[in-house]
Amino acid sequence: MSNYATYFSENRYKSTYHLGDRVRGRWNGIPFSGTVQIDTLVDEYDGPYVIVYSDLPIKDSNNIIHTMIKVKPDTINRI
């Protein structure tokens, strides 16, 4: 069992943000601030992503209102 633990600690994605971290950034060119919900890596093709619960609703160009957004970890900063 320790072989699996060693492998995952050395070779797999380690999250940079934790649940509840306050972040700020841009999503589709729209500035936002919010709270981190998830920081994970599902597959190697898409890479890691962070789900952020925004403080204010965000209205995109299709007039759809978003309160939770999916962003790349390198596009946001801690507040």
Low-confidence stretches: none
CATH homolog superfamily: CAP Gly-rich-like domain
What does the overall shape look like?
elongated
Helix/strand structural class: mainly beta
Cα-to-Cα separation, first versus last residue: 39 Å
Largest β-sheet summary: 5 strands, antiparallel
CATH architect. name? Roll
Q: For the record, what CATH class applies?
A: Mainly Beta
Q: Write down how many β-strands occur, each being a DSSP E stretch of 2 or more residues.
A: 5
Domain tally: 1
Helix percent reads 10-25%
Mean pLDDT: 93
CATH topology: SH3 type barrels
> What is the percentage of strand-forming residues?
over 45%
> Which oligomerization state do the chains in this entry correspond to?
single chain
> Helical stretch count?
1
* CA-atom Rg in angstroms: 15 Å
- Can you list the strand order of the major beta sheet? 4-3-2-1-5
Order of helices and strands: HEEEEE
